[in-house]
Amino acid sequence: MASRGAVKSAVAVHSQQPAAYFNNAIKSPLVIHTGRRPICLATYRHPTASKRYFSGTGPSGIKEFFPEPNAPQTRITQPAWKHPIYSQKQLEDIVIAHRQAKDWSDWVALAAVRTLRWGLDLATGYKHDKAVSLGKRDPQQAVQKYAMTERKYMNRNIFLESVAGVPGMVAGMLRHLRSMRRMRRDNGWIETLLEESYNERMHLLTFLKMREPGWFMRVMVLCAQGVFFNAMFVSYLVSPRTCHRFVGYLEEEAVLTYTREIADLDAGKLPEWETMAAPDLAVKYWNMPEGYRTMRDLLLYIRADEAKHREVNHTLGNLDQDDDPNPFVSEYKDPSQPHPSKGIEYLKPTGWERKEVI
Ligand SMILES: [Fe+2]
Ligand SMILES: [Fe+2]
Which ligand is nearest to the CA of 252? Predict the structure, then answer.
């Protein structure tokens, strides 16, 4: 991986000579901001890019996602939920984890996630396990056959983030309706759930600043959203606990995927990303400090968010869905003891047990 200094100088070049930088040096997806409308300069195509329509792209549309920021009467819209500050150590300390399934509800959730993962791996050509086993016998052939490129990873990220924002919104909406229908308090769950879906959408918007999906991807996203939203809606009415466990397991997979992306980046397998800077939108949303605004830093922030969702949903899956308060917004009698919070200072990868927080 490029040294921090090399990355910094690349970022400096980016800000001073964006056109030359992008056209001659990085050949990545790009947009420059002239103060008015974003301009797409070039679209990245990896030499070994897959011919799958899933990853189709075109140079024309990025501005469509990010319209005019300066309307006549307004300047900028601030995020509705300010992101908690993460320290560098906290970001680096995120670990892959798995919560053991303990009852039928957990097994149903785990089986659903495994099935979805299998389907997505098939659709996006992601064959990590096969690549590892072939790599032990014939590393060169493994790279040729299964290597994940920046393009493949980005397609996968965009697709995943487009569905990841659904469960929190569905759960928050259903709890909101239930609270009104039953005329009783919700105990603080709704906001955390909506904030989670907002955070997932910010992940998606960040990736869309780097790559524009083609028509096939859009159709896939549309279909996936239609199916997933309705499936989640019905499932959450039947068993909210299973749904939170399902999201917990899904987030375990997300942490795993982003950890592999970071490892591949560190191993020099994703050269385009080594010199890529995080988009402005991401720098502002995560409050990324100066000198820590590279693609690698961005992946660290997103991975930490996924680890937070993993903790939140595994914890919510351990609680009484009707009566328990949301431990992530509760005040604790002894705040000096580790307890659930909005940030990741006391992150618990497999979630908090009910007796620890209620
Ligand atoms: Fe995400
Ligand atoms: Fe997530």
Answer: 2
